[in-house]
Amino acid sequence: MGKKAVVLSSGGVDSTTAMAIALQEGYEIYSLSFRYGQRHVVELESARRVAEVMGAKKHMVMDVDLGKIGGSALTDYINVPKGRDEAEIRQEIPVTYVPARNTIFLSYALAWAEVLGASDIFIGVNTMDYSGYPDCRPEYIKSFEDMANLAIKAAVEGKMQIHIRAPLLRMTKAEIVRKGVELGIDYRLTHSCYDPSPEGKACGQCDACLLRKKGFREAGIPDPAVTF
Amino acid sequence: MGKKAVVLSSGGVDSTTAMAIALQEGYEIYSLSFRYGQRHVVELESARRVAEVMGAKKHMVMDVDLGKIGGSALTDYINVPKGRDEAEIRQEIPVTYVPARNTIFLSYALAWAEVLGASDIFIGVNTMDYSGYPDCRPEYIKSFEDMANLAIKAAVEGKMQIHIRAPLLRMTKAEIVRKGVELGIDYRLTHSCYDPSPEGKACGQCDACLLRKKGFREAGIPDPAVTF
Question: N or C: which end of chain B has fewer CB atoms below 10 A?
Answer without folding.
Answer: N
